[in-house]
Design goal:
Strand order of the largest sheet: 3-2-1-4-5-6
Number of strands: 12
Distance between the termini: 37 Å
Helix content: 25-40%
Length: 308
């Protein structure tokens, strides 16, 4: 593979040059991160075509370069973004992908070999919570350095829908979707506030909150049914996480992390608010969920543990 003429110190390896991987590479370039972006895929022709296409924007951005690479090149990356895997098809749940993507994941990390201990791995491939648990085991890295995108995109959808309902900009909305990135996820409305006011004090009708939760949970299915895949939202989600790492922002994000006693849950990867910086997950934020939310978190944990 060609090397970049200018090689910045930060190297980001994106595994998978499909719709999600290629769009993520493009979005990272637009973010103007001082980094070398490597795109890696078993289909080298597809990988090369995506690199050539994205390379055309270099004169418009500040990102160092993009290039195709081999799996072994990922071993020395500062950040590995794992997008490769079987895509969710219309009518499939994310959990239907378990066995296919487990095998793909094992093959990928066998090809990469020993990873440098300071690398951070961001898992995007679904089912993200289960694949994150798997990668934590097979990568040899500390669990703080291996986490999934989890419900970060679902949370973005929640904030957008609440913003629409109240007629405010989504960035004025705080709060999280938690648990499994899948059918047992839940909107933790006890964590939601808008412009400093708790959602319960804004008196949105319960039926409206239920409508918002259903729309957030089913958003991916609706998009897949219409266009076959989701990739713009998740690409920006990954870029936001990468930015938090490279700039050591200590940003609180709802990502899939290994839980050890958080709201009564241990021994499984699920989405919880976590502080993300240059060392990966610095800590899981001590949000106290209400009784109903804890029960729903337990349901998510039980569902994921079936597959572990």
């Amino acid at each position: 593979m060609e090397s970049c003429p200018v090689c910045p110190t930060q190297k980001i390896a994106i595994i998978g040059a499909g719709a999600v991987g290629a769009t993520t590479a493009y979005t990272l370039m637009l973010k103007n991160l001082v980094a070398e972006v490597m795109l890696i895929d078993v289909n080298e022709t597809k990988e090369e075509g995506e690199v050539m296409d994205i390379d055309d924007i270099l004169s418009f951005v500040e990102t160092g370069c993009i290039r195709g690479a081999d799996f072994k090149d990922a071993a020395n990356a500062d950040i590995i973004v794992l997008t490769a895997g079987a895509a969710q098809k219309p009518g499939e749940t994310r959990l239907d992908l378990v066995n296919k993507n487990k095998a793909i994941c094992q093959s990928i990390f066998k090809s990469i070999g020993k990873i440098k201990p300071t690398t951070i791995i961001i898992v995007v491939a679904n089912p993200v919570d289960i694949i994150t648990c798997l990668v934590q085991k097979i990568s040899g890295l500390d669990s703080s350095r291996v986490f999934g995108t989890g419900t970060s995109l679902d949370t973005a959808r929640l904030r957008t829908e609440i913003g629409k309902a109240l007629g405010v900009f989504p960035q004025n909305v705080d709060g999280y979707v938690l648990g499994e990135h899948g059918d047992t996820e839940f909107d933790a409305f006890s964590t939601v506030s808008v412009g400093g006011i708790l959602i319960k004090d804004l008196k949105l009708p319960k039926i409206k909150l239920k409508e918002i939760e259903d729309k957030v949970k089913n958003a991916a299915y609706e998009i897949i049914n219409r266009k076959g895949a989701t990739f713009y939202g998740i690409a920006m989600t990954v870029a936001n996480i990468v930015e938090a790492i490279l700039f050591d922002q200590h940003k609180i994000m709802p990502i899939s992390v290994y839980l050890d006693g958080w709201n009564g849950i241990s021994g499984v990867c699920l989405s919880a608010p976590a502080v993300v910086g240059r060392q990966g997950v610095e800590k899981v934020w001590p949000v106290k969920l209400n009784y109903k939310e804890k029960k729903r978190l337990q349901k998510s944990a039980k569902e994921i543990k079936k597959y572990l």
